[in-house]
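Before the break, one more example. Copy the sequence into your notebook; we will annotate it together after we see the structure.
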Amino acid sequence: MTECLESVLASNYPKLEVIVLDDNSNDNTSHLIKAFAHAGVRFIKGDPLPDDWLGKNYALETLLGDVSGKYVLFMDVDTRLSPDSISLLVVDLMEKGVAMSSVIPQRYDMQRLSAWFGTLRYFWELVLGSRVRPGASSAVWIIERQVLQDELGGLGRWRDEVQPELHLAAELAKTQDYSLIISTPELGIHYAKKWLSQIETARRLLLPRFYN
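Here is what the structure looks like once it is written out:
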């Protein structure tokens, strides 16, 4: 998480608000985030998980209720940004006139088997995607806050869905309000996830889509 936060804090995007939620995990998350408080990271403690919510989804909903900016960017802890990434994403949203974008990240260490496995996992997002149900990346996605809160009513409709951003993308694609982006060296979004984590993520996200 340290490298993830450092890449976010290096952003040149003005008036950046960085919020991290500790969803009552048993690791050292709270101590780590508090160590970044001097850099402007705001730490919030998560509430106990309701019975009908998945942990990730409830964390996203909690974070959504605590932000005030026009755009909200959610990212996986294994994702890394360049200083220009957030600014370029916002410009891309405005130029395309869409409310949401998600980004398939690059992988720089392609000599490793885990890197190829991760790249193939995102390849399936493109293969399985369609106009009705487009692909979406959980690595990084950005959305207009008022669209998510007011027009879509937050994440409550998808509280028990494994990949809520996929359903948000499908909903917004109905009005051509969604864009899937493949990162470039200029955009500078990449990820660093270990082999076992890649397998677990692929099993959790992709298998349900083959059987739906």
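The helical segments are 2-9, 29-35, 55-64, 85-96, 113-128, 145-151, 164-173, 195-211. Confidence is low (pLDDT under 50) at residues 110-119. Try to locate both features in your own notes.
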